[in-house]
Amino acid sequence: MYRLQVKAHFDAAHRLEAYKGKCNREHGHRWEVEVCLQGKDLDNRNMLVDFKDVKDALNFVIDTYLDHYQLNEILGEDNPTAEFLAEWLFRQMKARAGKGLQVVRTCVWESPECCVKYSPDMRSVSDGVS
Fold first, then answer.
1. I need a labelling partner for 40 at 20 to 30 A (CA). Which of 9, 28, 72, 103 fits?
2. pTM of this prediction?
3. Model confidence over 73-102: pLDDT tens digits?
4. How many domains does the chain have?
5. Which residues contact 121 (CB under 8 A, 6 or more apart)?
6. By the 8 A CB rule, do 12 and 71 touch?
């Protein structure tokens, strides 16, 4: 089994309406996101998938729905938390995964110190943060 990861970032604002504290006000982040894919078969180039193809899919999602948007508005969610975004991104990337590829997990960093990893099967999420 092979696993690969691709990282990207975007800038966006949000506010948490059901939160008591500063995050209740509109504020922005430079979000970092990672997607991890797995598969068992290499193609005729000895690649699971070209990194460029994964980057293109991830950047399409970011450019279309996330980058420089107000996330509450674009996603129609009162509380677009890092947890919400991690699962949302997982679903988006799952819909774009190529044949023979499985999205294992997504990771969303709201700040350099804080991230959320999402996988429907938590056994597939490693203990290490990367």
1. 9
2. 0.91
3. 999 999 999 999 999 999 999 999 988 999
4. 1
5. none
6. yes
